[in-house]
Amino acid sequence: MSLRVDLLEGGRIALRTLGVNRLRTVLTLSAVGIGVATLLAIVGIIQGLNGAFARQLASLGTATLNISRRPYVVTGDWWKYRNRKQLTLAQMQALAQQSQLATAVVPEVNEDSRDLTALDQSVSAVDLVGTLADFQKIWGYEVPVGRFLTDADSEAERQVMVIGADVAEQLFPGRSPLGQSVRLDNRPYRVVGVLAKKGQILGQSMDLIAIIPFNTFLQVYGKRDFQIDVAVDDADQLDRLEDEVTGIMRRVRTVPPGEPEDFSVNRTEQLADTYRQLTGALYGVAMGVGLITLLVGGIGIMNIMLVSVRERTREIGVRRALGARRRTIVVQFLLEASLVSAVGGAIGTVLGLGAAKVVSLVTSLAAAVQPLTVVGGILFAAAVGLIFGIWPAARAAQLDPVEALRYE
Amino acid sequence: MLIKLEDIRRYYTVGTEVVHALNGVSFEVPKGEWVAIIGQSGSGKSTLMNVLGCLDTPTAGRYWLNGKDVSGMSDNELADIRNQEIGFIFQTFQLLPRETALGNVELPLIYRGMRAKERRERARSALDQVGLSNRVTHRPNELSGGQRQRVAIARALVTEPSLLLADEPTGNLDSATGLEIIALFEQLHRQGHTICLVTHEPTLAARCPRAIRISDGLIVNDGPGPQVALESRPERARAAAT
Q1: Would residue A119 be called left, alpha or beta, if left means φ above 0 and alpha means ψ between -120 and 50 degrees?
Q2: Which helix (H) or strand (E) is A357 found in, with range?
Q3: Does A320 sit within 8 Å of B79, measured CB to CB?
Q4: Orientation of helix A313-321 relative to helix A268-311, angle to 10°
Q5: CB proximity list for A245: less than 8 A, separation 6 or greater
Q6: Strand-by-strand arrangement of the B34-38 sheet
Q7: Which of A90, A374, B163, B166 is 20 to 30 Å apart from A127, CA to CA?
Q8: Which of A314, A315, A322 shows the shortest C-beta gap to B108?
Q9: In this predicted model, what pLDDT tens digit does every residue of B127-139 receive, in sequence order?
Q10: Number of domains into which chain A is organized
């Protein structure tokens, strides 16, 4: 007898059996359904998070390199990076002159967690940046209100400032910040522009930022270590730019051939790697929970299939007497198990999508579930049924027809 | 010869004890014969019936069914032999409760891979043959015992097997209904079917042209039905008389 006949007949029997034991079927498939729903909700939220993060990363500018003493993400020996020689303005100028690919080269100095005040309002934990005009181009800042800093602001060491959207909202609620005075470390700055909102990356606001001219920064805070941002026209050229920049920097910093660099060339993609490292473990745990739920559902299926085999021992005997091969019996029970699971999977898919939707409505996370995930959910559930149906089906097939026919 | 058994032995191990269910049984059944296999419970007749039905394989000996040596066949081959050569009729009918009469009769044809339309036609005609053409869509629990056994007989006939194997076919029926079923067997015999009927009832065996008596796993008598069937009667007759 052909496998086709086995499958057709097995499917027919499976459908009928599901109809007969309705309560049992519903209970069994709900276990699988909950497992699939959990998994899908988790996958949906993860996909939503990843999508949001990818968009945010893109807003950072992808055709940019950052040269610094230390990498974006410091792992291991922090002192190694601290003891490196500082970058100098001369090195930056050499880089700007020698690079063929760079379209912009700017210095960047930073101070963390500054407090700003304006009249009766204040805001804290602001990132302070000192830089030049090209910083706007390199990082893709938009300035809907006012203007960005100019190189002339820096040369004249003007006390002017461009502020991020969150800073503007908190210092000047309902008012225009343009031309207003802001105090920072006991010095007044005049607001000349407000940046467009960038949102959050890894839970940190990108809009709690204040930018002042590079030389102003140095004059106020003293000479300090700075970073160099380098831009290229096309993100595809980033690898070539990195090679070129690394070569130039090695030369100007006189790193002997064969020695490792005493500086780091950073890319925003490294942030993506960090994101993956940070969230990977979390996702792993969440997926584990979903898988355990599915495992429980699978064991439920195995249990119910074992009961089913026992209940239908005589039926199996009759079928074997009438010419069913062992394989026919195996196929029959496997189909039954995977059909229950697949139906459970389909229901779970609907529930999981609903849960992801609710999450995206309640929180700011945009849960996204791709169509393929849905198909995958159902197929996965069917596979769970298939796997957990193997043992009961094998037991059914191993029954001795004589014994089975005599079974009461 | 439709059936040829040559020194068939079947031993089981129950715990540490070896049970000799069949101790070397040899006989032949030509095509078209109706033979009863008679014996007390524990005589080995059920084991013999299972071997004849290819549900069980003998420990030793050869068995030819319709010219094929089935004693060395694999599990799959035996399944196909059961499907093609044998029609089973059981004491407890062994119908599938969720299937209609028609569905039950169709079952062996499904395992033969026959197309639905042809299957249905043949199942209908088999039910017609046993006088149940008006019960086609009934489920077993909507049928009387006699009707259920007729459905089972239709299921056995539908594959046009070379051997009908009946195990106490009247055991679960009242005597009047039992007689009807026996009449049906007589009719099938006249139509040329080969029938093996396993029973412990001498009255039933006496109606068969030939009977084989089994005791302790051996053939103790083989001859015309009435003669073999009534052989153990003297003691009982005497017991009844006194």
Answers
A1: left
A2: helix A326-362
A3: yes
A4: 80
A5: A65, A67, A95, A99, A102, A230, A265
A6: B86-89, B163-167, B195-199, B34-38, B210-215, B218-224
A7: A90
A8: A322
A9: 999 999 999 999 9
A10: 2
Alpha carbon distance B218, A399 (integer Å): 28
Residues of chain B with Cβ-Cβ distance to A402 below 8 Å are 50, 55-56
CA A202 to chain centre: 9
Distance between A31 CA and the closest CA of chain B, angstroms: 27
Where b means 16+ CB within 10 Å and e means fewer, B140-151 reads beebeebbbbbb
Angle, in degrees to the nearest 10, between helices A89-98 and A238-252: 130
CB contact under 8 A, A1 and B80: yes
Q: Compute mean pLDDT per 10 residues along chain A, 408 residues long, and list them.
A: 78 80 81 82 76 70 80 74 82 89 89 87 90 88 91 93 92 90 93 87 78 93 84 83 90 87 83 76 82 86 90 93 93 90 86 79 68 80 91 94 90
* pLDDT digit string, tens, across residues B26-65: 999 999 999 999 998 889 999 999 999 999 999 999 999 9
Nearest-Cα distance to chain A for B135, in Å, is 21
Question: Which helix (H) or strand (E) covers residue B64, if one does?
Answer: strand B60-65
Question: What tokens appear for B137 in the block?
Answer: 């869509």
Q: Is B6 exposed, middle or buried (0-12, 13-18, 19+ CB in 10 A)?
A: middle
**pTM recorded for the entire structure:** 0.70
> ipTM of this complex > 0.90?
yes
For residue A331, count CB atoms less than 10 angstroms from its CB and return exposed for 0-12, middle for 13-18, buried for 19 or more: buried
Using a CB-CB cut-off of 8 Å, the residues of chain B touching A318 are 94-96, 107
Contacts of B156 (CB under 8 A, 6+ apart): B87, B88, B89, B164, B165
**Closest CB to A328 among B82, B111, B155:** B111
Give the distance, in angstroms, between the CA of residue B155 and the centroid of all CA atoms in the same chain.
Answer: 13
Domain that holds residue A390: 3-56+273-406
CA quadruple A246, A250, A255, A257: dihedral positive or negative?
positive
- Choose one of A225, A249, A266: the last residue of a domain: A266
Identify any residues that bridge with A188 across adjacent strands, giving them in sequence order.
Answer: A183
Contact A1 B112 (CB under 8 A): yes
Using alpha carbons, select from A211, A228, A232 the residue that is nearest to residue A266.
Answer: A228
Residue B163 CA: distances (Å) to CA of A304, B89, B154, B196: 38, 11, 14, 7
- Residue of chain B nearest A20, judged by CA positions: B98
Domain B3-241, CATH: 3.40.50.300
Q: Do B98 and A20 touch (CB under 8 A)?
A: yes
Q: Do B98 and A320 touch (CB under 8 A)?
A: no
Quick one: tokens of A44? 């949906």
Residue at a domain's end among A240, A266, A292? A266
Tokens of residue A79, six digits: 């002192």
Domain boundary assignment for chain B: 3-241
Q: B111: which chain A residues are within 8 Å (Cβ-Cβ)? A: 1, 5, 9, 319, 322-324, 328
Tell me whether residues B55 and A321 touch, CB distance under 8 A. Answer: yes
The verdict on A333 and A190 lying in the same domain is no
Q: How far apart are CA A70 and CA A81, in angstroms?
A: 5
